[in-house]
């Protein structure tokens, strides 16, 4: 399920927001910088974050929403 940029959702009790990845598409190896799911190189949360797999051709990251 592709989430829209700006969408907030609950993941295991944590609120996350979908944010456009500010890096260019050629910054390979840095796509996950700043992402909640970044546990190492190319973590790819269910493949929903890479520009090649999104209908809007935009890379995104998932940021924790501080309450």
Summary tags:
single chain; 67 residues; mainly beta
Q: How many helices does DSSP assign?
A: 0
How far apart are the first and last residues' alpha carbons, in Å? Answer: 25 Å
Task: Tally the structural domains.
Answer: 1
Q: In what range is the share of β-strand residues?
A: 15-25%
Structural class: mainly beta
Radius of gyration: 11 Å
The shape is globular
> Strand order, biggest sheet?
1-2-3
Helical percentage? under 10%
Order of helices and strands: EEE
Mean pLDDT: 82
Could you tell me the number of beta strands? 3
Give unreliable regions as ranges: none
Major sheet: 3 strands, antiparallel
Describe the 3D structure:
- The protein has 67 residues and is mostly beta strands.
- The protein has one domain (1-67).
- It is 0% helix and 24% strand.
- The chain contains no helices and 3 strands.
- A 3-stranded antiparallel β-sheet has the order 1-2-3, with no helix packed on it.
- A hairpin with a 2-residue loop joins strand 1 and strand 2 (14-20).
Brief digest:
The chain has one domain. It contains no helices and 3 strands. Strand 1 and strand 2 form a beta hairpin.
